[in-house]
Write a structure and sequence with these properties.
The protein is an alpha/beta fold and 206 residues long. It is built from six helices and nine strands. It has helices spanning 47-52, 69-78, 101-108, 128-133, 150-161, 176-188; strands at residues 9-16, 19-27, 32-41, 57-61, 84-87, 117-120, 137-143, 166-170, 193-194. A nine-stranded mixed beta sheet has the order 1-2-3-4-5-6-7-8-9. β6 (117-120), α4 (128-133) and β7 (137-143) form a beta-alpha-beta unit.
């Protein structure tokens, strides 16, 4: 990711609770270029360790941390030189943030100058111009506990693309047909995009 992730590439990730997220970067011809590792953190103290252990980026899950978001990001930056993703995941999409859009930007505003990427859900898309004006990249994301029909996935991707630089769609296929449909979707959409799936005990992977 960071500035070297441009519109000729997209990424597909997989993760589980015991390992950091792995990001595969592909060219438009779908040939693997390189793999990047994102460490999703719930404590900024762990950023330095993540860098020492080979992470390429860190994601700060701010809604899962206690304390002032600005202080948390500063703490991360003090011990880590990696690109940083700031995420405040709403309860509606599986996170622990229960506020409205005004509450979201009130918490996020102070950290925008200090990070490289901002994860924005559609309900907070009104703040995308503000993030872009600050020169930051937007990961427009949607998390769904089920599987969406192919038509709905295409509409969702279009809507996320309208305000984000990188599209991230998390769905949970229920059977092999769903997985095949998701693969068809990821093959057809514009890149860059991130469309991992959660298949229960199976790591997210495509």
């Amino acid at each position: 990711m960071k500035k070297w992730l441009n519109h000729t590439c997209f990424f597909i990730s997989f993760s589980c609770s015991t390992r950091p997220e792995r990001i595969f970067l592909y060219t438009a011809r779908q040939q693997i270029v390189h793999m990047k590792i994102v460490a999703a953190l719930t404590n900024p103290v762990h950023a330095a360790r993540a860098q020492e252990q080979g992470a390429d980026l860190v994601e700060l899950r701010l809604a899962l941390m206690e304390g002032d978001p600005l202080a948390l990001v500063q703490q991360c930056r003090s011990g880590c030189s990696l690109p940083v993703i700031a995420t405040i995941r709403s309860a509606q999409e599986g996170g622990q943030f229960f506020g409205d859009a005004k509450d979201w930007i009130a918490q996020m505003a102070a950290v925008i100058p200090l990070v490289d990427y901002i994860d924005i859900e559609p309900r907070f898309a009104a703040f995308a111009p503000r993030v872009k004006a600050a020169g930051k990249m937007i990961i427009s994301s949607h998390h769904d506990g089920g599987m969406l029909p192919l038509h709905d996935l295409c509409i969702l991707e279009r809507d996320l693309r309208s305000f984000g630089d990188i599209v991230k769609i998390i769905v949970t296929p229920q059977n092999e047909e769903d997985i095949l449909e998701l693969i068809e979707f990821t093959h057809a959409i514009k890149k860059p995009a991130d469309a991992p799936y959660d298949a229960g005990g199976v790591d997210r992977l495509i």
